[in-house]
Amino acid sequence: MKLLFPNGEHAPVELDPGPALLGSGNDCRVVLLAPGIALHHCELKVSDYSARLKLSNPENPVTVNGKAVEAEVDIKPGDLVTFAEVRCRIVAVEKGQSPVPQRDLSANDDGATKVRMALPKFVLRGVSGETFGRVFPVGQTTVAGRQSDCEIHIPSEGISRRHAEMKLTADGIMVEDLGSANGTYINDRRVTRELLKPGDELRFDTVRFLLIAPGQERPAAPSPASAPGIRASAPAATKGSSKGLVWAMVGIAVIAVAAVGAKLAGLF
Predict the structure, then answer these.
(1) Vertex 169, ends 205 and 187: CA angle to 5°?
(2) Which end of the chain is more exposed for a tag (fewer CB within 10 A), N or C?
(3) How confident is the model at residue 255 (pLDDT cuts 50, 70, 90)?
């Protein structure tokens, strides 16, 4: 499980299974130095895909998805938790999978197993600003922003520290604005949370990207002359040349016959 702080009060925190204190005290696993944060504000008991949040004091302000927590509550990936005035998004951490070995069946196979790295399902290609020409693979959860630990780091003053979060889906990537100052746009339309599909343009402030699905680009359409069932017609000039050549050959034959006839008649 991972904690993301959209406004940059703390770097992203990946929590291992077990208890973790959150508060302003130096002994806390997550230290938040902000108004309203108690020394030991709350405790998170983390399992693989969820956690139990327990207040250290019932007076410590905590909300989950806008609802105040009175004592204890379960939290899960996707929840928005607020500690006093500090917002935090709960996200899942995908466990990495080893690439599947594939045998190379070429004639020179030496018996060793060749490992092929899989292409990412989607990539973002920078088409303007500081990221122009660069390609960024999109993982299960990818954060873009000005902060250096973002998966897509954009060192621009118009970009918020944690500007937007992207999650893989079957049809594209789900883009969610994390409360940025200058906005997130898909095809020049400002969005809060929306699906980005291959070929769409994604923009953070003035920094633009194009979403690409590697290996799924469409091949170029065949020219009319090479399309099945369509026969290319010969140029008009070629047709005229062929017809003139036939008439010339006929004329030569007629002259030759006439000459032979005249010779036999004793004219020369």
Answers:
(1) 30
(2) C
(3) low
Q: What global pTM score does this model have? A: 0.41
> Is 260 in a helix, a strand, or coil?
helix
Contact indicator for 160, 145 with CB cutoff of 8 Å: yes
More confident residue, 113 or 92: 92
- In the block, tokens 């500090």 appear at 86
Residue with tokens 């405790």: 43
CA gap 82, 76 in Å, rounded = 14
pLDDT band, residue 230 (cuts 50/70/90)? very low
Residue 163's Cα: distance from chain center in Å? 16
Distance in angstroms (rounded) separating the CA atoms of residues 50 and 92: 9
Alpha-carbon gap, residue 228 to 177, rounded angstroms? 48
pLDDT beyond 90 at 208: yes
Helix, strand or coil, per DSSP, at residue 44: strand
- DSSP of 141-210: EEEEESSTTSSEE---TTS-TT-EEEEE-SSSEEEEE-S-SS-EEETTEEESEEEE-TT-EEEETTEEEE
Round to whole Å and give the CA distance between 11 and 104.
43
